[in-house]
Write a structure and sequence with these properties.
single chain, about 250 residues, mainly alpha, 10 helices, about 85% helix
């Protein structure tokens, strides 16, 4: 019990250290640059305490549950030797963790509102909802595809830098032909996929898979899946924008 409390205390101090720069930056600009008092200091302080407690418990939960779960499932699928099942698991993991990501839901909803104001989408609620859902599904599919590609790369031992370089060439090429209003959304979608749920599970999948496959090094082969998960949404969302535009014009 005493060791567990010490561990939690250590994690809590680590959370304080990680959150301190954010608090200092916000406080500096609020008080020094904007020269305005912090509104409702008591509520803000209570909120920060809850954030610290939540972050501490969340990290503890990742270490106890998600990391071992991801690694054990990767090991089990690899030992089973069923490539289709392994790739299906990778796709389902990427799609499932992304489609429910709160940051993606917020970005998709805001993108739909902006698209409606710009005349890209009809202003009614159904049209905006359809656009937002299309964005979410597109990003989720792209992350699922990214994990399938990443797992296949680990199995085959392909150099990661070639795939990433080729992906960014595609991003640059699509930037010139995609609708202007979708480009910023596409670039942002690459960031919202690196969530607090997706990252630990995907990392555990890669490390666990590389650990159990003969000839693979967890340090050099187990990482890199997150890079794919950040890259492919940009490509998929720009393609989504082009398809949506062509369908709208045709309609």
């Amino acid at each position: 019990m005493g060791e567990d409390l010490k561990r939690l205390a250590k994690l809590f101090l680590g959370s304080v250290r990680d959150l301190a720069p954010v608090i200092l930056v916000i406080g500096f600009f609020q008080v020094v640059v904007l020269q305005q008092p912090v509104p409702d200091v008591g509520s803000v302080a209570i909120g920060l305490v809850f954030v610290l407690i939540g972050l501490t418990l969340f990290i503890q939960g990742l270490e106890i549950g998600l990391f071992p779960l991801g690694e054990s499932m990767a090991n089990a699928f690899a030992k089973k030797g069923n490539l289709i099942a392994l790739l299906a698991f990778a796709f389902a993991l990427g799609f499932g963790t992304t489609i429910a990501e709160p940051a993606l839901i917020a970005v998709a909803a805001e993108a739909a509102n902006v698209a409606a104001e710009g005349g890209v989408v009809a202003r009614n609620a159904d049209a905006k909802s359809t656009y937002a859902d299309g964005l979410r599904i597109t990003v989720a599919l792209s992350v699922g595809f990214a994990l399938v590609l990443g797992v296949f790369r680990i199995l085959k031992g392909w150099p990661i830098h070639y795939i990433i370089a080729g992906g960014y060439v595609c991003v640059v090429a699509l930037t010139f032909i995609a609708p202007a209003e979708i480009i910023g959304i596409a670039y942002d979608s690459g960031g919202v996929t690196t969530s607090t749920i997706t990252v630990p599970l995907v990392t555990a999948l890669g490390v666990g898979l590389a650990s159990v496959i003969k000839g693979r090094n967890p340090m050099t082969d187990g990482f890199g899946l997150i890079a794919f998960a950040s890259l492919t949404p940009m490509i998929f969302v720009m393609i989504f924008g082009m398809i949506y535009q062509s369908v709208s014009v045709a309609g």
